[in-house]
């Protein structure tokens, strides 16, 4: 992906943020994921509203987008704050976006924009953890990503990966399973797909074979591992992993056999016009694959566009390399889901780890700023054509309806039919609420 092998201003290396394993060692990796899934048994809470959503697609803007130049322009602010972009009208009266978002302006009647989001962590790694987990980072406990929680708490049929990522969610534990254990980490995509024709080249660790051997050869390896498994059982009858290896090897092979999963990654099955609508970019084709996977039963998918750490020449970066692919892909994803009748059952969220300073620096850039930011939400029972909250005249801080990342997470999980204050247990038996400090944002919900 284009975001790999780069570093941000804090020196973090942009690379695949985890390694679930490889097909050659499938018996030692994917079964652990599936074994952990099998333990999921969240209780239903009849007091919760009937769930409106089944799945989530997160469009992650790695590096911290300058949302003051996107969803929350300040055209009346003094020079040095207001930026270079004009505001344009959208399909919703009273809501304007930056002129670099013309396609999103046309689908504004399908989305909510939260303009009063904030937190207090202006550092990439910890802020990414807060935004992706819905919990403030803690040295005492690594919280699971929301995708990992969905993998645990939402049922997924055999043969379909519950949580998958395209691109780099980056930095530390962001995107990972935390105290749930590696069994709930995401499946990670490799490669990409060309939007202008030809076959898709997406490969996913644990889902795709790499061409070095066939499924039949893998099954032979599985049979060999079962022989070792029988030997292990005579040594340690109490080991949950050993006791479950046969079952989870079988399920791992089912994912590789799955027609649903294979077809979801074959973007050539889509109309060429659809592929082109999403954009001939890793972001665009990743988002299209995510939509197809959601249709196949995946519960949480993340697609990422990096490069938003714009300390210098931020307006040039927005105009040339950041806003064009985001505007095209995000608008196409929302419109496509809506046209297919999938938007009401699929939550789309677009966000990064924090915003950027209202004050423009001497390098024509904006620096880290977590005290005001914006995100986009669509589908899953969220209001359409709605802007939640405001920031002050200079965009420094929320002026009305302030909300935090844990509030947004709580609202998303309520819409998924999951009690946001439900308790899970750490491996040591410690009870932990999903989002201890989060509150549901009722005004965002239909």
Write a concise keyword list for the protein shown above:
about 450 residues; alpha/beta; nine-stranded mixed beta sheet; about 30% helix; about 15% strand; disordered N terminus
Please write out the topology.
Elements: H1 26-38, E1 55-61, E2 87-89, E3 96-98, H2 102-106, E4 111-117, H3 124-133, H4 146-153, E5 163-166, E6 187-190, E7 203-204, H5 215-235, H6 240-257, H7 259-265, H8 272-278, H9 282-296, E8 300-305, H10 314-339, E9 346-351, E10 355-356, E11 368-369, E12 373-378, E13 386-388, E14 390-391, E15 398-400, H11 405-415, E16 423-425, E17 431-433
Helix pairs in contact: 1-6, 5-6, 7-9, 9-10
Give a description of the structure.
Helix 1 (26-38) crosses helix 6 (240-257). The protein has helices spanning 26-38, 102-106, 124-133, 146-153, 215-235, 240-257, 259-265, 272-278, 282-296, 314-339, 405-415, and strands at residues 55-61, 87-89, 96-98, 111-117, 163-166, 187-190, 203-204, 300-305, 346-351, 355-356, 368-369, 373-378, 386-388, 390-391, 398-400, 423-425, 431-433. The protein has a nine-stranded mixed beta sheet. The protein has a two-stranded antiparallel ribbon with strand order 2-3. Strands 10-11 form a two-stranded antiparallel sheet. Helices cover 32% and strands 15% of the residues.
- Low-pLDDT stretches are 1-7, 12-29, 39-45, 235-248
Q: Report the count of strand segments.
A: 17
Taking the sheet with the most strands, its summary is: 9 strands, mixed
Strand adjacency order, main sheet: 7-6-5-8-1-9-12-4-13
Supply the number of helical segments.
Answer: 11
Helix-strand sequence:
HEEEHEHHEEEHHHHHEHEEEEEEEHEE
Helix amount: 25-40%
Classification by helices and strands: alpha/beta
Instruction: State Rg.
Output: 22 Å
């Amino acid at each position: 992906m284009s975001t790999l092998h780069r570093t941000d201003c804090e020196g973090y290396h942009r690379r695949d943020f985890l390694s679930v394993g490889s097909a050659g060692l499938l018996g030692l990796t994917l079964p652990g994921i599936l074994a952990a899934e099998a333990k999921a048994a969240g209780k239903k809470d009849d007091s919760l509203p009937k769930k409106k959503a089944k799945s989530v697609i997160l469009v992650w803007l790695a590096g911290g987008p300058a949302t003051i130049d996107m969803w929350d322009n300040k055209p009346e602010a003094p020079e040095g704050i207001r930026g270079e972009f004009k505001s344009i009208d959208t399909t919703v009266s009273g809501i304007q976006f930056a002129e670099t978002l013309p396609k999103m302006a046309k689908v504004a009647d399908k989305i909510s924009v939260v303009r009063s989001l904030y937190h207090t962590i202006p550092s990439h790694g910890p802020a990414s953890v807060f935004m992706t987990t819905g919990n403030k980072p803690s040295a005492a406990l690594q919280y699971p990503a929301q995708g990992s929680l969905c993998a645990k708490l939402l049922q997924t049929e055999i043969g379909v990966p519950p949580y998958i990522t395209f691109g780099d969610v980056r930095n530390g534990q962001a995107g990972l399973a935390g105290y749930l254990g590696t069994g709930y980490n995401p499946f990670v995509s490799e490669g990409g797909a060309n939007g202008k024709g030809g076959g898709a080249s997406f490969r996913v660790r644990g889902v795709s074979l790499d061409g070095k051997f066939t499924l039949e050869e893998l099954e032979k390896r599985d049979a060999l591992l079962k022989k070792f498994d029988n030997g292990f059982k005579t040594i340690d009858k109490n080991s949950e992993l050993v006791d479950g290896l046969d079952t989870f090897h079988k399920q791992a092979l089912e994912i590789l056999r799955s027609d649903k999963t294979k077809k979801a990654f074959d973007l050539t099955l889509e109309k060429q016009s659809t592929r082109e609508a999403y954009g001939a970019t890793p972001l665009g084709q990743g988002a299209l694959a995510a939509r197809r996977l959601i249709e196949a039963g995946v519960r949480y998918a993340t697609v990422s566009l990096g490069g938003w750490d714009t300390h210098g020449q931020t307006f040039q970066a927005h105009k040339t390399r950041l806003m064009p692919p985001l505007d095209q892909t995000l608008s196409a994803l929302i419109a496509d889901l809506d046209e297919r009748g999938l938007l009401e059952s699929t939550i789309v969220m677009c966000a990064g780890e924090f915003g950027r300073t209202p004050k423009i620096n001497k390098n024509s850039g904006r620096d880290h700023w977590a005290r005001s930011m914006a995100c986009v939400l669509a589908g899953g029972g969220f209001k359409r054509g709605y802007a939640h909250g405001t920031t002050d005249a200079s965009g420094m801080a929320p002026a009305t309806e302030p909300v935090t990342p844990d509030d947004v997470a709580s609202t998303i999980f309520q819409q998924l039919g999951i009690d946001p204050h439900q308790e899970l247990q750490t491996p040591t038996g410690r009870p932990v609420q999903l989002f201890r400090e989060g509150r549901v944002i009722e005004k965002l919900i239909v």
